[in-house]
Give the backbone structure.
Amino acid sequence: MTESKLLEFSDAILSGGTGRSGTTIIGKLLTRHSKIGIARPTEIKVLTSGNGLLDLHLGRRSGKYRKLLINDQLHLIRFKQRLYGEWWTRDIKLTPNKPEQIPGTQVGLLQGMTREDIDRIYQELKKDFRRDKTRATQSFLRSLIDIHKAGNKKEIWVDTTPINVMRASEIQEFLPGIRFIHMVRDGRDAIASVIKEPWGPNNFEEGLKWWRGRMIKNLNGSLKVGSSMLTLALEDFAINDRENSYLKILKFSNVLDEEVMRKYFEERIRPENVRQGRWKHEADKPNEF
């Protein structure tokens, strides 16, 4: 198990939001800095997905097998199934928003570590889980982050899983020192984007319910986080208040400006790329929104 003095997470930043709200964009910007590296994959899933590390720590069973997980050891077995299953490797989900994707590409934790790495940290988790499941699950994530940092030679680690914000209060209690960036976006534009995805609602009516539910959960999940969270509107970040938003990101991340990051911001995060107001042209009945 990782030593006690290392179980601290001030070197980690989690971005989150409703989905299609800018969580990936902020991650791509941050990783242009010489001190900041992004997780591989950019959404690790192993922390916040059902029966992941956070659920193991809380003793929260979820999913279709939850009634069978009658004790912590069975819960750990379910974690292992997911760890070595879809969290380790899965087919990439193709989306019209990312035309560069190649069908059949494998994504997952195998992008950022070896099978020997995952075997080692899982065995450490298994060995210590019965004695102290919170310590064991913290140590697993600490080891995963350290493996990624050793690979990219950077000091700060960023994950962009949208539901990070939804579970922010729980995560903050679980991972001392962790920081969050909550990306928010005009819900109508977020809906216009998400209905193009294979995993979300299929029309604007369903999208409104989806977005409202996500926002309520995000707000409730982050009520107690305080100054450990930076909330940033995508429209300010890319259009209305660009410089001030950029400086807020630097200050919150505790890094100085750098040419590569600044160039990426100026050249790639452009007003036209955000497509503000797209819902006006894509909704069947825009006057109702």
Q: What stands out?
A: The chain is about 45% helix and 10% strand.
